[in-house]
Amino acid sequence: MMEKHRIAVFGAGYIGLVTGACFAKLGHDVVVRDIQKERVEILQNGGVPIYEAGLAELIAENADRLRFTLDAEEAVRDSDVVYVCVDTPSTLSGDADLSRIWQVIDTLGEARHLAAVVVKSTVPVGTGARVRAAMDQAGLQHVGYASNPEFTAEGQAVRDFLQPDRVVIGADDSRTAKLVAQLHEGVGGPVVEMDVPSAEMVKLAANALLATKISFTNEIATVCEATGADVEQVVHAVGLDHRLGPHYMKAGVGWGGSCFPKDSRALRAMASNSGYSFQMLSSVIEVNDLQPRRAVQRLKDELDGTLRDRTIALLGITFKPGTDDVREAPSTILASRLLAEGAAVRCWDPLARPLATAPWSSATRYATPLEAMTGVDAVVIVTDWPELRDVDWDQAAAVMARPLMFDGRNLLEPQRMGSLGFTYMSVGRRT
Ligand code: UGA
């Protein structure tokens, strides 16, 4: 029979909420704690402050085993496991800021039945050892420590949690490893146990390799443009090699989000701090930084060498479809660059949260793609929202001042767009 645990999850962001809701679904008693009053109040009143497919339903279905609080002491008091899902943002040096993790550790003294502390937040290798030392100093030698990195992708996080490719557990001792494995009973995926530093590294290495695959594909796309090959045909055939696989080889304006940019910088900083220059990762980051800039340059060339007083519509703001998240999205670099070149920027996105900060404070947002495109000199597809396939592109060509498109996600068919009268550019494809 499944053993029920009392879990305190720290952090009600994408990771913490999904973790808490999924553990409640698996039958555990969960309390999720966050420092943001507004966020906790929304959750206490039955709302969900972020969009994640299936999350609102999961929270509602398991409401009797899931509660939310601002009070850290109250959260840890009767819990036997503390899950740390707080954010670890980049500092100026590219290192991860661990201050929120330390704040959690500071509250552990209140716990009466604590058996284990598990860190899910992405952290530099060696963090576990530091947390362990801090716990020992606080008289918590009897409490186990584990690293349990997450591999869920936004937009499909609930599915990824419940049906993962693997559950990685790094623990100092077999009792703690067994406890964390037990929490995952009912999850459909193999459990891989290892030591704490290796578990911490798995997470960074996996994200860096995924980012590398995309940047590599974007480099191939650039060479395709210069030589007359077509990146989609190339990647399709390359990906059929089972040693390489077809995933994360879609060319475009680059990767963004809360993970790849931050984690690749953190891994590079971690290497640099020990005197090693991770040159390949630096190139991966640089290629990604170039992608939106190249898009702006190609638009500029097409618009007779100037973007001044041109109006450009950006379709899609979020870093990928299926999420409301705009963190480190390529759209932000695109909009900033266009504004810097003197263009006026309009935008459309079905889910992005309203943004009051630069560059979006200078961009007008429209309710439909067609409204955003009316009268503009060019349109850029930035996020591959599926609804963009169904836009009436014939009508779009008619309402634009000039039917010029940069398809930054290779979403549409070059021939078709050409036949509708568009001057159509995309990433690494033959037109
Ligand atoms: C990523 C990883 O995929 C997860 O495994 C990991 O757990 C998560 O980071 C994390 O560290 O928390 P996520 O940031 O949600 O998940 O986003 P992805 O779906 O991986 O996409 C990242 C970016 O790469 C997006 O901007 C997307 O448009 C871009 N991308 C993806 C491409 O440009 N080409 C591709 O072929 C695939």
TrEMBL record:
Enzyme Commission identifier(s): 1.1.1.22
Sorted UniProt keywords: NAD, Oxidoreductase
First-level EC class: oxidoreductase
UniProt keyword Calcium present: no
Catalysed reaction, written as an equation: UDP-alpha-D-glucose + 2 NAD(+) + H2O = UDP-alpha-D-glucuronate + 2 NADH + 3 H(+)
Residue ranges annotated for the UDP-glucose/GDP-mannose dehydrogenase C-terminal domain, each copy included: 313-414
Xref: Gene3D superfamilies: Cytochrome c1, transmembrane anchor, C-terminal, NAD(P)-binding Rossmann-like Domain
Pathway(s) per entry: Nucleotide-sugar biosynthesis; UDP-alpha-D-glucuronate biosynthesis; UDP-alpha-D-glucuronate from UDP-alpha-D-glucose: step 1/1
Annotated Pfam families: UDPG_MGDP_dh, UDPG_MGDP_dh_C, UDPG_MGDP_dh_N
Keyword Oxidoreductase: yes
UniProt cross-references to InterPro entries, sorted A to Z: 6-PGluconate_DH-like_C_sf (IPR008927), NAD(P)-bd_dom_sf (IPR036291), UDP-Glc/GDP-Man (IPR017476), UDP-Glc/GDP-Man_DH_C (IPR014027), UDP-Glc/GDP-Man_DH_C_sf (IPR036220), UDP-Glc/GDP-Man_DH_dimer (IPR014026), UDP-Glc/GDP-Man_DH_N (IPR001732), UDPglc_DH_bac (IPR028357)
Entry's family note: Belongs to the UDP-glucose/GDP-mannose dehydrogenase family.
UniProt-recorded name of the protein: UDP-glucose 6-dehydrogenase
Organism (species): Streptomyces violascens
